[in-house]
Input
Amino acid sequence: MSEQSEIREHLSRYVRALTSHCIQTGFCGVWHHRERRLASWLCLASDAADSHVLPVTHEYLSSVLGMPRAGITETLIKLAEEGLIRKTRGVLQIDERKRLEQKTCNCYRLISGAYTLSESAIPSEYPAA
Output
């Protein structure tokens, strides 16, 4: 890494983005309502997977977000009734991404912005994965 300053800089930016993500997620879990937290997580996961279809279960979401499974189910039902998502066993599909983003807390924008800054520093000879 000492010989490849571009790689070192890229990894450093990624570590800062990941650290910001972890800190902001901790604050989010304390301060924000479950609907906003779940909407933020779904948007971030969709961004990371580059897909509107996410292979997740209620149990997994409960574990990741630190919320009771019943609360996850209740919130997903509400989002589905609003036409934002569709859910089948083990799969969530985001149908109305822009409207789902409106449900997110500011944490979504802060976290996704940190990763965007990290990616913008990738030199052209190192294509994004």
Summary: The mean pLDDT is 86.
